[in-house]
Amino acid sequence: MDRGVPTEEVLAEMRTADPPVSYLVGTPKGRLSKLEKALLELPWQQVRQGVEVKLLPKDQEMYVLAQSQARIHKERAMRRRKLKWLWARLKQIAAMDNLSHKELLMKLGAARARARVAWRLLDIEVADKDATFSSALNRDKLRQVRCREGRYLLRTNLCAEDPAKLWTFYIQLVEIEAAFKNLKDDLQLRPIHHQLEHRIEAHIFVAFIAYCLHVTLRARLKPLAPGLTPRAVLDKFAAIQMLDVHFPTTDGRTLILSRYTELNADQKLLVKQLKLVLPAQPTPRITNPAPKPVSAALHPA
Fold first, then answer.
1. What are 99-108's pLDDT values in tens digits?
2. For residues 208 and 216, is the Cβ–Cβ distance under 8 A?
3. Angle at which helices 197-224 and 163-184 pack, to 10 degrees?
4. Rounded to an integer, what distance in angstroms lies between the CA atom of residue 298 and that of residue 59?
5. Global pTM?
6. Domain locations in the chain?
7. What is the per-residue pLDDT across 136-152, written as a single tens digit (0 to 9) for each?
8. Contacts 24+ apart (CB under 8 A), 97-102
C-alpha cells in the first residue's frame, strides 16, 4: 500500500456510512498494472487545456486515469537530471583507485540514497571479492517509467460528477497536501513544545502568517522567476545578515552602525529578477554617555 492511500476496509466503511462519505483518493501503483488493459481500450477525454482523463466504472466506483502534459514534461526533466547525475557519479566511483570492497558498497549506497528513482532504472552488479562493479541501463524499466510519467490513477465514489470537476478536486487535494508539507518542513510548525493553550494557538497563528508569506512569494516567483521555488529563494537570501558594529568614543559614548552584508553575485541577480529594492543602510546611532558613579558620602566620626 502506498503511503497515504486508504485501505479497502476504510473505503468500504466510507461507502456504507450513513450518510455516505464521498472520497477521491490516489491508488497504489500495482492497481494501475491490473487495470492497464481495460484502460488502454478507453478513449481520452479532454477536461482542460493540457489535461486528459479516461474513466473506468468498476464496483460502484469510478477509476480516473489522468494525464497532464505539464506534469509529464516536469517529471521527465526531473528523471533525466537525476539519471544524468547518477550515471556521472558511477563513472567517478569506477575510476577511483585503492577502494576496498566495503568502501565501494558505501559509496554506491550513498549514490542510491540520493537518486533512488534513477537507481531503479539501472542494472548494477557488484563483484563479490574485488572493488569492481558493472552498470547498464534497463531499457524495459525506462520504457515503463516513461509511459507512466505525468499520469495518475484515482478512484472515487463520485461517479456522477463531471471529469473536469474531479480533476479540480484532485488539484485541490494536492495543494492541501503541499500546504501541510510546507508548514511541517520549511516553516517548522512541528514539534510544538508549549504547555499553555494560548501559546500553542499563537505558535500556529505565526506559522499560518508565515505560510501566507510563503504563498505570496510563490505567486511572485511564478511570473518573474518560474524556475525557482520559495525554498530556493529563502536559502539564497538566508546568507544575508544584519549586524551592528560598535565603536566606543573617548567621551564614554558608543557609535553604532547597523549594516546588512554585501550581496554576492547570485543574490544581486535574484533581487534584480524579482524587482526588489533593498532599503538604504540604516543611519548611525550614538548612545548617551555612561553615568558617572556616585561616590559615597563621608560621615564624621
1. 888 899 999 9
2. no
3. 120
4. 101
5. 0.57
6. 1-161, 185-233, 239-286
7. 999 999 998 888 888 88
8. 99/131, 100/131, 101/127, 101/129, 101/130, 101/131
